Amino acid sequence: MDETREVKASRAFLVTVAVGRTFYQDSAEELRLLVLSDGLEPCGIMQAKRDKPDPATFLGSGKIDELGELAKSAGADVIVFDIALSAAQERNIARRLEMPVMDRTELILEIFRARAKSREGRLQVELARLEHLSTRLVRGWTHLERQRGGLGKTGGPGEKQIELDRRMIGVRMKQLRDQLKRLARQRGTQRRARSRGDTLSVSFVGYTNAGKSTLFNKLTRANSYAADQLFATLDTTARRFWLNDEETVVASDTVGFIRGLPHQLIEAFKSTLDETVHADLLLHVVDSASPVREEQIHEVNAVLADIEADNVPVLLVYNKIDLSGNTPEIVRDETGRPKAVFVSALTGEGLDLLRSAVAEFAANWREENPSTPRELEPWELEIEDDAEHRRKTPQEELAELEALL
Asked: How far apart are CA 155 and CA 162, in angstroms?
């Protein structure tokens, strides 16, 4: 967002843009929920359509002037776009309208910054924000004086400050990546410790606000934060998930996905999302009452492909049947195996069916993946090597025994 926004604004004017043939039925409602999640109050909306973006202002000068009049008459403090703007476009719009501007990327980054609770989550969000900021530094220093240097070259404090900030941001980003690598190694060790033996690993994924964390809490009796808002959960939680008297599995709840999730966040949260990549089964939670559930399923599948988790087996869990009117049931594929379950995390309907479907998958998985000795940790390999070197030959052991006698 533009540097003129020094304090958080309270009233936001929303702008949704359909480009070409791309149209999202829920774009206005989703943007409203995102704005509310950031603590802003929506005060109006403009829905625009363009064949292709205008390079300078995305919407074109005429539409931008119309937007300015609407935003000012609504008493807006900030304008929020539902698309990603380039640094130049955002700067041009803010200058023309004399009002701060946020795009979708900055809005989501801001929500993540406010919601991150764990040390790893805060580091991941800071890294994503710095990566985004590093592409927009030029805006922050346009107020500095540019002085004419020798030989006809321009130079001055503005350019020097930009270079200094780029270097500082680069150093900080390297520190963050190093810290996240250490945390990722710890997470990997914890994951391997949980996976010793033949315990099934299950990961909950889904579009944000599909009821994923509520379902996770019901099944694992955990107390992860769950609320009717976007991105209520950012930090991964792992708990035991009881299936029946004979079996439990390890379940993990991860960050929810959304259309247009900034690539900086996907990159920064890869260590957290590794829980998804290494899972044996994904429970893809879907809001069965949403009119755009098929589009949301597609967006989640796209993110799973981005993090290379699209080859992990998936069981669709259609949640919120108390709102959609569906009945609890297990839907099977052509081979007779469960492919979808209809449940309500709120009322508990269908949860026994879900446990049964996961238990059935676990039985098939165990049959197809017989237990094999786990790979030794590096420190265990070192101990084994030392023991090998100290191991005596039968002749040496006999000589020691004779010496004792």
From this structure: 12
